[in-house]
Structure formats: C-alpha cells, structure tokens
Amino acid sequence: MIRLLRALGRLTVDGVWQVGFATRFLFVMLRHSGPSFARFSLTIRELYFSGVLSLVIIVVSGAFVGMVLGLQGYDTLQRFGSESALGSIVALSLLRELGPVVAALLFASRAGSAVTAEIGLMKATEQLTAMDMMAVNPIARVVAPRFWGGVLSMPLLAAIFSTVGVIGGWFIGVVVIGVDNGTFWSQMANSVDFREDVMNGVVKSFVFGWAVSLIAVFQGYDCTPTAEGVSRAITKTVVYSSLTVLALDFILTSFMYIGK
Amino acid sequence: MNRAMLDLWVGAFVALGFAALMFLAMQVADVSSEGTRGATITLYARFDDIGGLKVKAPVKSAGVVVGRVTAIRFDPNVYQAEVEMRVSAAYPFPKDTIAAILTSGLLGEQYIGLAAGADVEMLEDGDRIQMTQSALVLEKLIGQFLFNQAADGGGK
C-alpha cells in the first residue's frame, strides 16, 4: 500500500518536474534564439531537413486523405441528394481539422523523431558537452535552429496538405464521379470563409508546430545518453506530440468555432 | 549538400507553401468575390420573419449575386428583424424595390432576392427597403394548408 502511494507520488513529482523543466528549457531556448536568425543558414539547413524532406509524405497522404473524403463525402451526401455540397465538405474538413492535425501527426513522426534522434545521439556521443567546452552554447547552436525550423515549416506543410487534399477531393468528385465542376468550386467558395476557416487553420498548425518542435528538441536534450535512452526518447517524442496535438486541437477548436 | 542547393530547395519549399496558402485564399475561400467588388452601399430592410437567413447570405437579383447580408438584428420597437446588407454600388436599385427572403432549392440556403420596381429615384446608402416579403416557414405553410382543408371539409 505504502509502496503504491510512493510510486504514485514519484510519478506525480516526476511529471510536474518534467513540465517545469520543459518550460524553463523553452525560455532558455527563446533567449538563445538570436543566432538562429542572425546566422539564418543554420535554420535554413533545418528547414531543409524537417520541411523539404517531409514534403513527399505530406503530399502523398494529403492526396489520399482528400480522395477518401471525396469518396466518403459523395457516398453520404448523395443519400440526401446534395452531392453539390461535396466541395464544402472536402474543403471545410481539410482546412479546419484534417490539414493541421494530420500534417502535425505526420510531421511529429517524420521530422520530430529525426530531430530527437539527432540531438539525443549528439548528447550520447558527448558532442554537446564538447561544444560547451569550446564555449559554443549547444542550445543556441544545435537546439534553437531545429526548433525554429520546425515552427516555420509546420504551417507551410499544413497549407500544402490542405491544398493537395482539396485537389484530391476535386479529382475524385469531379473527374471520377462527375459532380459538376462549377458547383463544386462555387459551393466551396460560398461556405469557406477566409478568416474563419483558412486563417484559423494556419493558427492551429502554427501552434502545433510549436508544440511538436518543443517536445522533439526537449526529449532529445533531456534523454538518457545511452542507445536505449535515445530510442526511448524518440518513442516519447512521437507519443507525446501526437497526444499533445490531439488535445490542443480539441481546445483550439472549442475556442475557435464553438465558443461564440 | 552544398549551400546553394540547400537554399534552392528551401526557397522552393517556402514558395510552394505560400502558393498553397494563396490557392486556399483565392480558389477555396474566394476572397476576391467575398461580398462584392468595388464600392458598396448599405441598405436596410425589416422582415416579419427571416426564417433561416444568416449573415453573409447572398443578396441576389435575377439570380445574380449583387451583395451580401452583413448583419441581422432584432428590433424590439417594432418586433421585427432588421437586416443590414451591402449591395454593389454599380447596380442602383429603384426606391420601390421589393426584398424577399427566398430559398435556393427545396432545402438549400436562404438568400435575399431583390425585385426591382419602377421608381425613378434610386436607393441610396443607408436607405431602407420598404416593401419586404418574409421567409416561407414550412410549419406555417402546413398549418395554413390543414386549416384550409378543415374549412373546406366543414363547408360540405
């Protein structure tokens, strides 16, 4: 009994301690973010690794998600004789939810895990300590550029995801099934609002970019410097950032669309 | 990977991202046709019942979109709904124009239809459309139908 309580207590204390450490880590990183913008080539490298290299998976999954939405949306809508609303369904579900959320999940598993692995291995092979010895701040040199690379590429990836998805839905709806092209686009344009839907999606993906990148760099920096520790940190990155993205999405949605 | 290639790829990625945003703004949300292009005038109209009319519903004349509904208020002095709409200044309407709330299709969205009158004076910014026709509410229609049936049956 006592042991059970003790385990619970340790779990709580560890959890709170981690959250506090992550917050302090965030502020330290923000304070040392100067070099990642002054020497922008550092960030450009990270944009390449987390942004450009994620393009393939983002484009392919965006196309398939859009095509599935086209098929399923048509199947449901034609029961009510309102196939013409297919455009709005595809565009709204992509812009509001699927674009930011699925792109963030893919981003966490494609780019976030890579960042964690890289920083974790640098720590395990004592490269970070070596940098410290040479009076190079590893947070400014290694961690902050990776964080900002993630934050900057996430909204762009989500926008690309939504666009490819809309085109995928259009392909299935208009080209394959034969919904009228004009109706498809005009219904879409009628029901989608720029500020309400497009900008809110961008805000969402920006927030997700912060969350996923912070978790990725923190788990890498915080990991136990062994092979096992690095692999556990990568798993944690993917699990934690997926859960965080889904929870944040619920909170953001309830503020953006329901709370008025 | 040398520096120039890296820059090129990242540049292409960022350009692609912004192109996607532009596509979403232009083609999907269609910012340019939001409401109407160019100068607009604000008109008001009071309705007994607006049915399911919503803000941003189109204002059409002869089926062509000429404006948008910008606000809907309840006026407690006359117990009517006051609808504010922006109509393109390029299409002047006579003073005796009739505004009616219509439905596109059987279950489609509701919009305001403007039927031009014959007055020589035109509606100006801030004017109120005097003649209005409320939305058809299905329950009322059915109620009326049943009432008429009953009246007919009683006469026999």
Give the SSE map.
The complex is a heterodimer of chains A (260) and B (156).
Chain A: H1 2-31, H2 34-38, H3 40-51, H4 55-77, H5 86-124, H6 127-133, H7 138-177, H8 181-191, H9 194-222, H10 227-258
Helix pairs in contact in A: 3-7, 4-5, 4-7, 5-7, 5-8, 5-9, 5-10, 7-9, 9-10
Chain B: H1 3-28, E1 40-47, E2 58-61, E3 64-75, E4 80-88, E5 98-103, E6 110-115, E7 128-129, E8 131-133, H2 138-155
Parallel strand pairs in B: 1-7, 2-6, 5-8
Antiparallel strand pairs in B: 1-4, 2-3, 3-4, 5-6
Q: What is this entry, summarized?
A:
Chain A is mainly α and 260 residues long.
Query: What is the multimeric organization of the chains shown?
Result: heterodimer
- Report the end-to-end length of chain A measured between terminal Cα atoms: 48 Å
Q: What's the rounded overall pLDDT mean of chain B?
A: 82
The Cα radius of gyration of chain B reads: 23 Å
The helix content of chain B is 25-40%
Q: What gross morphology of chain A would you assign?
A: elongated
Structural class of chain A: mainly alpha
Number of helices of chain A: 10
Sequence stretches where pLDDT stays below 50 over 5 or more residues of chain A: none
| Shape field of chain B | elongated
User: What is the count of β-strands of chain B?
Assistant: 8
* Overall number of domains of chain B: 2
Strand residue content of chain A: under 5%
β-strand number of chain A: 0
Organism (chain B): Tepidiphilus baoligensis
Domain Mce/MlaD (chain B): 40-117
Protein name (chain B): Outer membrane lipid asymmetry maintenance protein MlaD
Pfam families (chain B): MlaD
